[in-house]
Each structure stands twice: as structure tokens, then as C-alpha cells.
Design brief:
The protein has one helix and no strands.
């Protein structure tokens, strides 16, 4: 029925184990990248809000100085 001998079965098992290990490592790397991306988005949003607030503050000060 099966034409696979013990050596071929052993090679197949080793290959499956190696692929399982690599998939696990890739999954861990992906989780790490997702975490970094989430942090990056938070930092960018914070910078945008901060720059907007700074712009409004500077404009308000200039208007008070010029407008009296």
C-alpha cells in the first residue's frame, strides 16, 4: 500500500518538525511586529494631537498680541 520506507518517514517527520519550529518563530516575530506597530500608531497620533494643540496655542498668543 505505502511505498514509504523508514528512512523516508524519518525525513518527513524531521521536515515537519522543522517547519513547525519555523512557523512558531514566524508567529512570535509577527506578534512582536504587531506590538511595535501599535506603539508606533499611538506615538504618531500623540504627535499629531500635540502639534495641533501647539499650533492652536501659538495662533491664540499671536492673535492676542496683534489683536489686542
Amino acid at each position: 500500500m505505502s511505498t514509504m520506507n523508514d528512512i523516508e518517514a524519518g525525513k518527513l517527520i524531521a521536515a515537519v518538525e522543522q517547519l513547525t519550529k519555523e512557523v512558531k518563530e514566524l508567529k512570535e516575530d509577527l506578534e512582536s511586529i504587531k506590538g511595535q506597530l501599535t506603539k508606533g500608531k499611538g506615538i504618531i497620533i500623540g504627535m499629531v494631537l500635540l502639534s495641533g494643540a501647539a499650533g492652536v496655542s501659538i495662533t491664540s498668543v499671536i492673535n492676542k498680541l496683534i489683536g489686542g
